[in-house]
Specification:
Largest sheet of chain A: 2 strands, parallel
Number of domains of chain A: 1
Number of strands of chain B: 0
Order of helices and strands of chain B: HHHH
Helix content of chain B: over 70%
CATH class of chain A: Alpha Beta
Number of domains of chain B: 2
Largest interface: A-B, 28 and 28 residues
Oligomer: heterodimer
CATH architecture of chain A: 3-Layer(aba) Sandwich
Number of helices of chain A: 6
Structural class of chain B: mainly alpha
CATH topology of chain A: Rossmann fold
Chain lengths: 132, 92
């Protein structure tokens, strides 16, 4: 999955690379929201998103995302720290991690910090450092 | 969903290697396989069209991304293998 792109050329390099590696990028609805929200050129992002495989989120992904957020909060120390950690990670990244577990298990992201927290909280995902 | 009927020939060895569930609903299996191929082709054509317009990516440009993709795949395979070992040993 490609979890963010503010740089279309970098995103296309990543897509070219995963294609060469025989991987298929999958885009869930929350990534579409985030990519269109953050981008400088919405037309260019739409061209890219339109050609990538879209995958629906399932209710089970929501349950798993919630479990991961709770675990990540506990790892932050509980109380206000837990609340702050959960808020920092956000629902979108938790859903992305949950869907990734169900599919390939690999998440490509420009900002891997939140996903790393989720991984340490038990998400069975790989978050490679990608030079976006 | 509208469907069309097409007559195809299938390598019997490939058919024999499918699970009984897949063989029981061959149309669904063919659809799944074709959806995957179409998605791979769409992904590849996106890159090809970009390169046709802006010039091909160089090996130097792609190297860090390919390295990340291959390393991620290896790490994922190791993760799956470790989970299988834990399951085999009856561990959580």
């Amino acid at each position: 999955m490609i979890a963010a792109e503010r740089n279309i050329v970098a995103a296309l390099r990543n897509i070219a690379a995963v294609a060469r590696a025989g991987q298929l990028l999958v885009v869930p609805p929350v990534v579409i929201v985030e990519a269109r929200q953050r981008c400088a050129n919405i037309g260019a992002v739409d061209v890219v998103l339109a050609r990538l495989r879209r995958e629906a989120l399932l209710p089970e992904d929501g349950v798993r995302a919630s479990d991961l957020l709770r675990a990540a909060g506990q790892q932050a120390g509980g109380g206000r720290a837990a609340s702050a950690r959960i808020h920092a990670i956000g629902t979108a990244d938790a859903l992305i991690a949950a869907m990734a577990e169900r599919l390939s298990g690999i998440v490509y992201s420009a900002d891997a910090r939140h996903l790393s927290w989720l991984k340490h909280a038990g998400a069975r995902i790989v978050v490679p450092p990608v030079p976006f | 969903m509208a469907t069309v009927k097409r007559s195809v020939t299938i390598d019997p060895q490939v058919l024999a290697e499918l699970s009984p569930e897949r063989r029981a609903n061959l149309s669904a299996a063919v659809n799944d396989a074709l959806r995957l191929l179409a998605a791979l082709e769409a992904q590849q054509s996106l890159v090809a069209e970009w390169e046709a317009e802006h010039g091909p990516f160089t090996e130097e440009e792609l190297a860090p991304y390919i390295e990340a993709a291959v390393r991620a795949q290896s790490e994922r395979m190791m993760m799956v293998a470790e989970e299988a070992v834990h399951r085999y040993r009856g561990e959580a």
